[in-house]
Amino acid sequence: MELSEFLTVGGAALLLFAIRIFGTALGTIRTLVMYRGHEVWTAVLGFGEIFVYVVGLGAVVNDLSNVAMLMGYCLGFSVGTIAGMRLDRRLAMGHLSLRVISRCKGEEIVATLHNAGFGATLSQGRGRDGDVGIINSVIPSRQSKKAMALVQQCDPAAFMVADEARAVMQGWLPGATSAFPSLPVTQPGADSLPSEPPAPEPAVPAATERPR
């Protein structure tokens, strides 16, 4: 039976519009999750996406002459794409690699990030106009605005680039329970003194040939 037999034309179009928004949002999130390497979530979202897609497509194909249903399906796809992108920004999954270049506030920026609980590493570089400080930090995506605001407070002219980090291992991540714990570092002390070099073996005299 066709969907229009149970609903009015406007009701069927609105239902298809909502179904397509939901399905396209799932597809957008699935693509973003797949890019980050989450296999299980990619499979789950893919199942939901294709299920909603088949249901909506079947309703449209059964009645292609219904312009309202066709428009609802197409508009749902467009709005669903935007909804998926906004939902991803709200969820803010994963981590960002933040790189900051500052001419004279490198030390202050690093200290500010450290005080806020972020890891940051300062190195020196040389740009067109002279020496600069280069700060590298890996931060949770949901805290990116906070970190960038702290940098701007220290140096409003700082140059910042944020890239998505596909894989994060080791290091300092604020408030994260990493699945890859840092390796223990043993400091030299009473229980870990460097071992003494082995005593040299006595030299073996070379064999001499007797005169005949």
Features of the shown structure:
212 residues; alpha+beta; Alpha-Beta Plaits; 4-stranded antiparallel sheet; 5 helices; 45% helix; elongated
Rg value = 31 Å
- List low-pLDDT spans: 176-198
Average pLDDT reading: 75
**Terminal residue distance:** 118 Å
Question: What is the percent of helical residues?
Answer: 40-55%
Number of domains: 2
Q: Largest sheet, order of strands side by side?
A: 2-3-1-4
Largest sheet: 4 strands, antiparallel
The total beta strand count reads 4
Q: Treating each run of at least 4 consecutive H or I residues as one helix, how many helices?
A: 5
Strand content: 15-25%
Overall SS class: alpha+beta
Write down the secondary-structure element order: HHHEHEEHE
General shape: elongated
